[in-house]
Structures are given as C-alpha cells and as structure tokens.
Amino acid sequence: MDPCSRPRLCYRSYDGFVCRSPPRAHVEAPTLRTPACVCRSTGIVALLSSGLWAKSFGNMTTLRQLRQRRDFLIGSLGAVGCLSLAACGGSDNNASESPTAAQPALPQLFSISASTLADIVFRPENFLTAYEALGGSSSTPLAYVQSRIGSQFASLTDTGALTVYATVIACNAAPLGETPLPPMSSTLSQLLTAASLVCGHYCKLTTLLSLLGYPLLIPPDAPTGAAQRPVLHTLVWLDTVPLNTGFHSQLIISGVLDNAYLLLDPTYGYALRVPFVGSGPQADLMTVENAATMLQTPIDQANLALLDPNRTASTPQMVQVLLGGALGPQYIYHDSIYGCEGWDARISQVIDDLA
C-alpha cells in the first residue's frame, strides 16, 4: 500500500504527497517490441535486433501474470519511473532540511561547465563523450574520478566511476524543489530539462545516464554460483529514517568496489563507500538489506566524498547519521510497487519488454 493509504497512484512532491488518479491510458503505455541496448564504444544509443535482453535477464513471468503490475510497466528506458516516494523532504512531520538554503557557494569536486551540461541536454549520449574526456590526454576517466573522490575509492571500477559521474551530472541538472513532473512517465529529456527535481527523479536520471554506458547494471543480481556483475539497486527509505529527509531514495551499486558497496545520493550530492562488515553480504538478504545492515556500523569520514558540498552544508544531521551507524534495514521501505522491490522490478521489466 502506498504511503497515502489510498487506492490511487501517488508520488511525493517536495512539500508533500500529490495523489492523482491518471486515466488508464496513461499508465498502460505501449510496449516497444524492438530490443534496445546502448553501444558505448560508439557513444550512441543503438537499436539492435536480437534477443539479448530476454536471454540475459530472464523472464518476468510472475510479474507479467499480475494484471495490477502491468499497469506500471513503461515501454522505454526514458520512461522508467517511480510511482511513489519520488521526493525527499516534505515529510509528514515537516522535519526535512533544505539543502538549497542561501549560503556561500563551496567548490565542487567536479567542475561541470554550462556547455557540457547543455551538450548532454541536447543529446543525452553526449554524457558518454563527457565522461571519456575526463582527465584529458594525461589520464583515464577512471583514474580522474578516483583522484577526485579519494584514496578509499582506489578499487573503484570503470563502471563505478561512470555512475559517480552520472550522479554529478544529475545533481547539476536542476535544483532540489517541487516539480509537477510525474516520475512514472518522465523521460530522460524531461529530467534533463526540468526546472527542479526531487530524490526519485534524481535517482532515475542517474540510473538512465548510467545505463547509457552500462546496460547490464540493471537488476536482478546474477544467480548464486553464476558470474557476478555490477548491479544498480534503488534504496528507498521510510519517512522515519533519521536522515531527516522524510521518504528518501538513494542508489546502491554492487560489484564496483572491493569488499564494499557504493552508495550514491544524487539529491544531496555525495558518494559513500560502505565497507563490508563481519562475514560480508548474506545470501538470504537483498542487496539493499545487506547495505543497510552495513550502515549500522560507523564508517570513517574518509569513505565519504561530497561531490557537491553545497547540498549537504545545511544538513549536518544527514552526514552524522550516515557515518554514525544510525541507519539500518528497519528503515527500508519494502513494497512490490512503490518500494525497493518495485523499483528493481520496474527497471528490469522495461528492459525485458524491449525483446
């Protein structure tokens, strides 16, 4: 059940819930039948006529058999969305802090020029060109990203570096604030040109940019015993999470760091290395559950890279909670439509439906 406890589609705006009952035609978007993937080597989005996606990611028979779930399957990458919990801030107790309060501007770890952002807005695949240009002729994009975010990220892979850069671009795309853009139907172009965004939109934009370079980031995780690959998951926190944000969305990337998860927050502009503790991830737990369990252990400040310090300057409680071991799996929002499971299923199904 969605947080509004009403049988309507719902998403959060910056200052609270906005509930609406869209016409059926709006939620039953036509499904593309042409399989699609991204050819990173050429830096363009290429449509390929093969059964790659269905073979690589398995079938989603159970999900397809549930009629109520079909309403939420969107037929293109640009329309992947979160139907609810799309915003941080605006919790029911109005306890959220605004990261956009007036204050002296602090230098960002990555300098994103207006022309670079304009190029990406004009043609989203230019994001890959911008990433490949990092470090110039004297370095590689991976080495450049590693040098900017710190030695604790020395084991970061190229896939992980690209998701960090996608986070930077998403964070710079628009300020945090109320938006009329429905997250379930927003496209990559709409997200890049929005006047303001909230956390679900920021996570969605980061995800879509990352998928341009690495389509195989989509969930689910590889089966036990199979070759593992990096996978991107959306972590949705309940409004009781002590981050003081209300409902909030972040991204967890597995397989891009040695003995650690990569947590990305494009809303507040930071990357966190979440070290494994104890015996490491438990096979019977979801990735987000494992990550949240690791967050119960205090984390050294060196594992946190503030990509845009301006976003967290007025929210000191967030950083303290993030590093202090105050989070945990009890704050995860589980729901097959609106929660972590809903995000994973929706993104996976969109790719699978393209076959």
Structure in words:
With 355 residues, the protein is of the alpha+beta class. It is built from 14 helices and 9 strands. It has helices at 24-27, 52-57, 61-65, 67-70, 114-122, 126-132, 141-149, 158-173, 188-193, 199-213, 287-294, 309-312, 316-324, 340-353, and strands at residues 9-13, 16-20, 36-39, 44-47, 231-237, 248-257, 260-265, 270-275, 304-306. The protein is globular, with a radius of gyration of 19 Å. Residues 1-87 and 89-101 have low confidence and may be disordered.
Distance between the termini: 31 Å
Number of beta-strand segments: 9
Number of helices: 14
Question: What is the average per-residue confidence, as pLDDT, rounded to a whole number?
Answer: 75
Report the radius of gyration as a whole number of Å: 19 Å
Q: Record the strand order, biggest sheet.
A: 5-6-7-8-9
N to C succession of SSEs? EEHEEHHHHHHHHHEEEEHEHHH
Helicity, in percent? 25-40%
Shape: globular
Oligomer status? single chain
Write down the domain tally: 1
Summarize this structure as a short list of keywords or feature phrases.
globular, 14 helices, disordered N terminus, five-stranded antiparallel sheet, alpha+beta, 355 residues, two-stranded antiparallel ribbon
